[in-house]
Structure formats: C-alpha cells, structure tokens
Amino acid sequence: MHGMEGAIFYLYILGAVLATFARIWLLMGVSILIALIMGILAARVRSAGAIIIPLTNVLQAVPVVSFFPIILVFFLVRVPGGLGIELASDFLIITALVWNLILGVYEAVSHIPEHFDNVGRVYRISLWSKIKKLYMPASYPTIVSNIMPSFASGLFYITLSEVIAIGSRTYQVFGVGGIAQELVASYNFGGVLVLLGMLVVGISLNFYFIINPLLKRTEKYTFDTTAAIESREERRIRENVFLSNISRRVNQVVNTSVSAVTAINRFMNPRSRRERRRSQFPIPERSLNIVVGLLLVASLSTIVYLIARSGFAEAFTSYLLNIGFIKSLIIGVSYDLLRVLIVFALSLVTMVPLAMYFGNKGQKSKMSTGVFQILYSIPAPIFYPLIVVFLTPFLAKYMGADLAFEVNVIIITFLSAAAYIFFNVYGAVRAIPTELKTVTKVFGLKRSRITRYLTFPASIPALITGSMAAIGSYWGGLMVGEYTVVGDTHYSVSTGLMAMLDKAIATNNLLEADAIDIFMVVIIVAISFLLFRRLYSYSKRKYTY
C-alpha cells in the first residue's frame, strides 16, 4: 500500500471493505445453517443438549488466537497456498459468528410452549414438518436479533482473522484486517479514519437494506396464542352478539360430529397397545437420545484426539504439570475474572435499560436503534490503537500509566460483547405477545409495574442467553486489549491470562499457548456448569409463555 495516492488509495480500501463484507455474509449463511442444526438438536434431544450447550459456551469464550495452533496444523500446513490461508481465515470468522446463533436457536426452541409439541405428537406430525413449520419460525426472531451482534463480532475480530500472525510468520487474505494493520504499523492514522468512514457507510447500508427488513419480519413470529388474527368478516360477525351465539352453537355441533366420526374410525380400525405406545414416542425418544449422544461423543472424542496430537498433549505434560506455571495462570485468570465482572456489571447497567426502552418503543425507535447498532458494529480493534496512543497519555497524568491502560482494556472489552445483551433483550421485548401488552393498556398499568411484572420477566431467558454470549466474548476483548502493538511500541497489562496468551503467540511458543488454552477451557467449563446451566434451567421452568 506504500506509494498509493489519491483515488487509487481510496479504491484499494473500498475493495478491501467489499471483500470483507462479502466474506462475512457468506460465512453468516453457513453459521445460521450450523446454528439451526445444533440449536434444534440441543433443544429437542436431551443428550445433545447436555453436550452441545456446554461445548458452545466453552468455544464461545475461547479467543480467536487460541485457534491459531489448530488452523496451523489443519489448514495452513495440510492445505498449502492461498486456499489454505482462505480456509483458515474463514474458520476463524465462523468461530466469531456461530456460537451466539446456536445459543439463540436453543433458547427459542427450548422455550416453545409445550402444547405446540403435544399437538404435533397427537397428530403424528413428521420431524421435518416440525422443523419447517414450528422450530425454524420460532427461531427466526432470535436468529435475526443475533445477526447484527454476530456481524459486529465478525468485524471485531477481522484484524485477527484476515491476518494470522504466529511468531515471525504472517498469513494474510485481502480485506479490512490487513489494511488496518498496515495503516497502524506505518502510523497512518488518517488512513485509519478513512477506513473507519468507509466501514460506517458499509455497515449502515447493511443495516438498512438487510438487517432492518429482517427485523420487521420478526413481528410475524410470536406466540400470540389467544389473540389470533381475524379477517374483516370474522370481526364483523363477532360484533353482532346474535350471530356470534349462532356461530358458537354451530361450532359445537361440528366439533361434536368430528369427535363422533373420530371415535367410530378408531373402533373400526383398532390399533394394538404397542402401536399406541409408539405414537406417544417414549421408546423412539429414548433411542434417539442414546444414538445422538453416542454419535456426538464419538465425534467429539475424534476431534479431541486429533487436537491432542497437534500439540495439546505435549503442552499438558510440559507446562500444566509445572506448579510455578499453574500459580501464574491462577493469578492471571483471577485478574481477568475481575475485569470480566466489572465489564459485565457495566453492560447490565447500560444495555438492559436501553434494550427495554427501545424494545417497548417498537417502530418509533427504529431510527435510534439503527444508529446504535451501526455505531456498535464499528470494529473497535481498528480504532483501539488510536485510543491507546492518545487516551493513555492523557489518563496517565491523573492515574498513572498502568491504571490508564487498564481503563483502555475495560473500554475495548465492553465494546467487544456488551451488544449481545442489548440485542437479545431487545429481541425478547419486541417478541412479547400482543395480548399481554393489550392487558396492560386495558388496566392502565404504570410503566414501573409493566417493567417489573411483564417486560423484565419476559426478557430473562434472552438476558441469560445474551449474558452467556457476552461473558464468553469478553475474553476475546481482553485478548485484544491486554497486549497490543502500535508500530514498534508494545503495550501490555502487568498481569492477565490473555496477555500471557498473546505473548506466547507473538513469540511462537505454541506449546505454552496450548497450555493456557487448556487451563482457560477448564475455568470456562466450571463457570458454565456451576452458573449458566442452572440459570437456564430455572428460566425455562419459570419464564415461558
């Protein structure tokens, strides 16, 4: 890019933006397909849910750089040339897009009112019909509400996904990531601002021509079970009491006749007790649980074996059996957990009220919500060097260099994933059934009571889903913030697990990076099982329409 001037420079940046957007949307389609398969499977097959959801929570929290040793072995070495680099980049982008989509589909399908499934069992509706006419429509609002944060997440990690740096080796595909790193390395902050401006225009066009039309369609996919949509003729008949009574009587006669015909048909075509048991699905359901569980365990075992052979087994024996190294990991993760807790508290205080406010406004807040989503999708790692270079010296005058850099880390971590909470809660508020909102208007309830007894309880499942996604992604924000390089200057926190991981990757010490990954996975699994699985089960029992 050196020597480029005028129109050629701008066209080069524009081409990079278009290439990145095309790459992200193509992989978004792949991620949605994966999310539908995995989310529905986890929600409807108990053994699958016990494996997929904890695994998704773990993988979501694993920063993109943690996959570098894996892609080095499976893509960059085994698939030489540009194809291997492109596949490696695509794999990393999918890891930034797919996890919260899986959790969103799981949340939507698992909270489908039970009587919908019961009707399907009574009428022996096929599995494909259930998926097509029940599970996929139920998932549509959560998928759409998570597309924007997934899109933002893909852009957030684009500097790491399109430019894979391991020690002194760099693998790069054409796109925004490579352009941004070249501009920062040459201290061309004016070029960075030009790149950011083009990204804002591109994000705006994506929102208004793709995301916003999809959001409008979500209003069709809510479980308004009592407030059915009536035709003009039906509404006219209901307004006439006399005709309404006649209509009710006719319906009673018809229903009685249908019941009689059904009973006669059962008498003329008796089924054995075994067939009746089969129609209730207990035996196939148990078999399905066993088969799916075994298949997932076998697949997971194979993947773990291949990953272990790629270096993780040696990392365990070389590092994780060292007491001194374990102590440094515990100290580092303690600092990072404190940072995550601070950022999570800030996210709850800011994002939940905003999401409820915009969600209750409906179409009236379309413009404000759009501006918010566009601003939040601007990839913070691209302008993070500007924050480090200009904000750190200013804050250091009042609080010292170390604390000033900690503020930068909190900012970038907040920007990395707080939107997950906003978009999930916003989608839940928009999806509150119409008849429940109507009741609040009929009784003239105050806003505080509506929030306490309707809006907030209705948002809890989505809030838990968003929190799972956010806390998992905060680790990626810490990874970007705790260690960064601007030109020839290195900025780093004094203590942090993600800083240790960044430094291990930067020095090409992949065994140490693998050991840190293993330790981090253990911590994330513990958090998932001890906290989020219980919260999710509780929300499913208590907060379902």
List keywords for this structure.
MetI-like fold, 21 helices, 4 strands, 3% strand, globular
Secondary structure topology:
Layout: H1 6-44, H2 46-61, H3 68-77, H4 82-110, H5 114-122, H6 127-156, H7 158-161, E1 163-166, E2 169-172, H8 176-185, H9 189-217, H10 232-239, H11 241-268, H12 273-279, H13 282-320, H14 323-361, H15 366-377, H16 380-399, H17 401-430, H18 434-442, H19 447-482, E3 483-486, E4 489-492, H20 497-506, H21 510-542
Helix pairs in contact: 1-2, 1-4, 1-6, 1-9, 2-4, 2-13, 2-19, 2-21, 3-4, 4-6, 4-19, 6-9, 6-17, 8-9, 9-15, 13-21, 14-17, 14-19, 16-17, 17-19, 19-20, 19-21, 20-21
Strand order of the largest sheet: 1-2
Major beta sheet, specifics? 2 strands, antiparallel
Helix percentage range: over 70%
Q: pLDDT under 50 segments (min length 5)?
A: 225-264, 270-283
According to CATH, what is the topology of the largest domain? MetI-like fold
According to DSSP, the number of beta strands is 4
- At the first level of CATH, what is the class of the largest domain? Mainly Alpha
